[in-house]
Write a structure and sequence with these properties.
This protein is about 35% helix and about 20% strand. The protein is built from three helices and five strands; from the N terminus they run ββαββαβα. The chain starts with a strand and ends in an 18-residue tail after the last helix. A three-stranded parallel sheet has the order 1-3-5, covered by helices on one side. It has a two-stranded parallel ribbon with strand order 2-4. By secondary structure, it is of the alpha/beta class. It is globular.
């Protein structure tokens, strides 16, 4: 087993949930570390938030490491508005502009 990176699109909604579910589910049996590039992801609806929550909990129960890459503040805010908190998600700190 190894690690693999999956790149998410700009949104996870009921419209594309089946494709994202299939991609994430496939990773559960193939890798020990999942890198999720969320640099484009800024919007999730209730179905998308539930999928990310379920995926996070499933990885925890299987002792799989989830490494969220390049998360946007909008994503964390959007998840929070839906009542979902994912402990693995951290917003990348912006470098301060030297003056």
């Amino acid at each position: 087993m190894s690690d693999q990176t999956i790149k998410l699109d700009s949104e996870i909604t009921i419209r594309n949930i089946q494709l994202v579910f299939a991609q994430l589910s496939e990773l559960l049996t193939q890798v020990e570390v999942v890198h999720i590039d969320a640099s484009q992801l800024s919007r999730v609806d209730t179905a998308g938030a539930q999928l990310l929550y379920l995926f996070s909990k499933t990885c925890d129960s299987r002792s799989l490491k989830v490494d969220w890459l390049h998360c946007q503040t909008d994503l964390v805010t959007n998840l929070g508005e839906l009542g979902i908190t994912l402990p693995h998600i951290q917003v990348d700190a912006l470098e301060e502009d030297p003056k």
